[in-house]
Design a protein that fits this description.
The structure is a single chain. This protein starts with a strand and ends with a helix. The chain is about 40% helix and about 10% strand. Strands 3-4-2-5-1-6-7 form a seven-stranded mixed beta sheet, with helices on both faces. The longest helix is centred in the middle third of the chain and has 20 residues. Helix 1 crosses helix 12. By secondary structure, the protein is of the alpha/beta class.
Length: about 290
């Protein structure tokens, strides 16, 4: 069974979609079949992988409303082992239309169940709100990856998300875990960043990812070209950070993948770009 990871934080602007796109792309670069599911009506993960917004296309809205299967919604991206289920702004309507529906919290879980044998990792990009869309994603997920900035308000907001996770564990998904907390747009030179990192490590311990993502212009530019960072500029610091993050998560879950998948990444110790071989192949098709 593939592992389902929801990338969630109710605070906007913390790098959820950037993390979802680039983590999924990095899994694919490790030659691991990966599915990215856009659960956000803004559909930035969809456009960030080069797909125009199309109301006629099968999307996560149709999955949640039971109008289409996950298989019907799959789109092949330019990365050989990365697929996408797109979103559209009509997904906003699902929050209202599902209110009176039976088993409304389980729609995403039921839609993804037939795909879990096909994909080793399924990454869910959640909207920046604790609404019915995020609830569906968290009920469907095995674990939550929490991107956050090293700021005071980010620490305040994370307690609300943790409370939601506990409520979901108690009633809807007792197996839901925390994959980790990853610091994004990080400038380690500031005192505030150091203080926030210390607070997180005191509270979360080993759940704080060893990998952090620095502020990086190439990472910010990539979505405007409809590409993951490791396709747009594989040697950028942003792309390399997400490759390291994917490797870290893969090594935590050896049972979820083939034994040698993490070896696809070139080790940092040799001073080479991680994932060099698959990235070179991707560049040819870009």
């Amino acid at each position: 069974m593939g592992r389902v990871i929801a990338v969630a934080n109710q605070k906007g602007g913390v790098g959820k979609t950037t993390t979802a796109i680039n983590l999924a792309a990095s899994f694919a670069a490790a030659e691991v079949n990966t599915l990215l599911v856009d659960c956000d009506p803004q559909s930035n993960a969809t456009s960030g992988l080069g797909f125009a917004k199309d109301p006629e296309r099968v999307s996560t809205y149709h999955l949640l409303m039971g109008a289409a299967s996950g298989e019907e919604a799959l789109l092949q991206t330019e990365l050989e082992q990365l697929w996408l289920i797109p979103a559209h702004k009509n997904l906003i309507g699902a929050n209202i239309e599902l209110v009176d529906q039976e088993a409304r919290e389980y729609r995403m879980r039921e839609a993804l169940a037939p795909l879990r044998d096909r994909f080793q990792f399924i990454v869910l990009d959640c909207p920046p709100a604790l609404d019915l869309l995020t609830l569906n994603a968290l009920v469907a997920a095995d674990a939550v990856l929490i991107p956050m900035q090293a700021e005071y308000f980010a620490l305040e907001g994370i307690s609300e998300l943790l409370d939601t996770i506990e409520r979901i564990r108690a009633s809807l998904n007792p197996e839901l875990g925390i994959e980790g907390v990853v610091l994004t747009m990080l400038d380690e030179r500031t005192n505030l960043a150091q203080q926030v990192m210390a607070e997180l490590r005191n509270f979360f311990g080993e759940k704080v990812c060893k990998t952090s993502v620095p502020r990086n212009i190439r990472l910010a530019e990539a979505p405007s070209h409809g590409k993951a960072a490791l396709v747009y500029d594989p040697r950028s610091k942003g792309a390399e950070s997400y490759i390291r993050l994917a490797k870290e998560i893969i090594e935590r879950q050896p049972s979820a993948i083939s034994p040698d998948a993490s070896q696809t990444f070139t080790t940092e110790e040799h001073g080479e770009a991680a994932g060099e071989v698959p990235v070179a192949e991707m560049d040819k098709s870009a």
